[in-house]
Amino acid sequence: MLSKERVHLGIAPIAWTNDDMPDLGAENTFEQCVSEMALAGFTGCEVGNKFPKDTVVLKKALDLRGIQVCNAWYSTFLTTAPYEETEKGFIQHIRFLKEMGAKVVGVSEQGHSIQGTDKAIFTEKYVMDDREWELLCTGLNKLGRVAREEGIALTFHHHMGTVVQTADEIDRMMENTDPELVGLLFDSGHLAYCGEDYLVVLKKHIHRVRHVHLKDIRPEMVKKVKDESLSFLQGVRLGAFTVPGDGSIDFGPIFDVLAEHDYSGYVLVEAEQDPAVANPLEYAIRARKYIAEKAGI
């Protein structure tokens, strides 16, 4: 069982409002989102496109509901743009997170990413050459050092459709970055989606895991995406992702590995779906109950 003192439970706003496809959840307000997060029993959250940018306003709204910002996605373009362009926005981003009390930042390399395009997610993913790998890993080390100076730990988010998606790509990224500067954001759903053994990846890199996304998949929808050469976003609309306890992943062994290695930090439910089909509050409550049963928190 996970330690209630060391491990905290959060949920992402992407179930209520989708940053990549704003029509999904356009009707849902920020206030509804964070109120339902709290109602479902969560105490942490990430940041969505409807969240107030003013930290005073945001803090007040979250404090009223007993919720803490624990992370916020940041897109890097280390393989396709000068490093300085990524760093400039990154500094502003981590200072926002620091002011909100977060301890980690989740970055994803969006250079050459196809996750937001109409390209087939299983057959058109970009593969980096050695020069691009050097740009990525050197840039991540630099950003990790910048983040550490602000008291924030950089975690890298492997993701479908990006240049770091597979187990081999995760291995190479981890081997060529400084463990003191670059951690891993482990996401079970993205690894299961692309056919990797998520438990093997977790065990291999557990000592560098600084943030965890609890994402489940519906295999029949993933198969449809693969068979019909659909895009990542088409898969989301179909319902390829869902919350823990509603898909095919048994999270018990994941929680066991985290507990065995004294994981400290957030485990965060993240499942982008169409909220008109999958009611966010209903699915948040379902996930919360499942995690309580499986992890003891």
From TrEMBL:
A family per Pfam: AP_endonuc_2
Originating species: Acetatifactor muris
Gene (UniProt): iolE_3
Keyword DNA-binding among record annotations: no
Protein name per its UniProtKB record: Inosose dehydratase
Catalyzed chemical reaction(s): scyllo-inosose = 3D-3,5/4-trihydroxycyclohexane-1,2-dione + H2O
Named cofactor requirement(s): Co(2+); Mn(2+); glutathione
GO biological process, one term: inositol catabolic process
Family to which this protein belongs: Belongs to the IolE/MocC family.
